[in-house]
Write a structure and sequence with these properties.
Blueprint lengths: L1 E5 L2 H4 L20 E9 L5 E5 L5 E3 L1 E4 L5 H12 L7 E4 L8 H10 L4 E5 L4 E2 L2 E2 L5 H9 L3 H13 L7 H10 L14
Parallel strand pairs: 1-7
Antiparallel strand pairs: 1-5, 2-3, 2-4, 6-7, 8-9
Length: 190
């Protein structure tokens, strides 16, 4: 079996990712423990979750894919993420070195999985790659967004799986009132 790891919008908005079951509740909560935090400023204004070695590890989610091989899974996730190149899609097993691939590989081997894919974007803030905002900067940034971008950012933070309980998320909930919401249905694109 080939699976996909997730911790953000992939859970509630899989688009055309070939999941065995696209329902948000079909994602398994016992994935590998990875350091995840809201550290990537996206083009639409949201602060998205990424793997970052400075964050605290917590279990991510996973779901089986309907793909024949690992390369097909990589390409499906690349298309879903609208990534111009497939190097931002982590994969195990791999000849390349992906940060935390050893943790993911150990987890996958325990479950006798054939392959694992995940989105491997890095922290990015104010045009600086590899650097995320501090908690204070994140809250100031989110609070200062225009109305439409603020709605998108709030939706992302609130819909992130409840098990992705990070220090930034708790600070955002306390300062901005953006409490997590349970996921009951996938969100369709308009």
């Amino acid at each position: 079996m080939i699976v996909c790891l997730g911790w953000g919008s992939l859970i509630w908005r899989p688009k055309k990712l070939p999941l065995v079951d696209p329902h948000p509740l079909a994602w398994n909560p016992d994935g590998p423990k990875l350091p995840i935090e809201f550290l990537r400023q996206s083009s639409n204004g949201t602060l998205t979750l990424v793997i970052d070695k400075g964050a605290a590890p917590l279990p991510v989610l996973w779901a089986p894919l309907r793909t024949a091989n690992l390369q097909e899974a990589v390409e499906a996730l690349r298309r879903r993420e609208r990534a111009p190149v497939d190097r931002v899609i982590g994969r195990w097993p791999s000849n390349s070195s992906y940060e935390f691939a050893n943790v993911i590989g150990e987890w996958a081997q325990e479950r006798e999985l054939k392959g694992v894919v995940w989105t491997d974007l890095k922290a990015q803030f104010d045009g600086k790659r590899g650097v995320g905002p501090s908690r204070v900067e994140a809250i100031e940034y989110l609070n200062g967004l225009s109305r439409w971008k603020r709605v998108l950012a709030e939706t992302y933070v609130r819909r992130a799986p409840m098990t992705i309980d990070t220090p930034y998320r708790r600070a955002i909930a306390q300062k901005l009132g953006w409490q997590p919401v349970p996921l009951t249905q996938p969100v369709e694109d308009a």
